[in-house]
Amino acid sequence: MGDTVNNEGAQKKNFFQGLKTEFKKIVWPDQETVTKQTIAVLAVSIALGLIIAILDLIIKFGLSFIL
């Protein structure tokens, strides 16, 4: 069999250096943006939950009326 070179240590080092470099490129949002987006997600989730609940009640009433 041929001789193989174990570059595992070098590969891990390069991976973590690349990871560190990529993390430096991230632009994190400010607190105001995060707060606005969180409120928007909560509002849409609550609205969607209410719409589903109302549709469920309408369908349940309709089925009980038919049956």
Automatic annotation (TrEMBL):
Subunit structure: Component of the Sec protein translocase complex. Heterotrimer consisting of SecY, SecE and SecG subunits. The heterotrimers can form oligomers, although 1 heterotrimer is thought to be able to translocate proteins. Interacts with the ribosome. Interacts with SecDF, and other proteins may be involved. Interacts with SecA.
One GO term describing the cellular component: plasma membrane
Gene name of this polypeptide: secE
Domain of life: Bacteria
Gene Ontology biological process terms, A to Z: intracellular protein transmembrane transport; protein secretion; protein targeting; protein transport by the Sec complex
Keywords, ordered alphabetically: Cell membrane, Membrane, Protein transport, Translocation, Transmembrane, Transmembrane helix, Transport
Annotated GO MF terms: protein transmembrane transporter activity
Record-linked InterPro entries: SecE_bac, SecE_sf, Translocase_SecE/Sec61-g
Protein name: Protein translocase subunit SecE
Principal location class: membrane
HAMAP family in the cross-refs: SecE (MF_00422)
Record-stated family: Belongs to the SecE/SEC61-gamma family.
Subcellular location: Cell membrane; Membrane
Membrane topology label: Single-pass membrane protein
Role: Essential subunit of the Sec protein translocation channel SecYEG. Clamps together the 2 halves of SecY. May contact the channel plug during translocation.
Spans traversing the lipid bilayer: 39-59
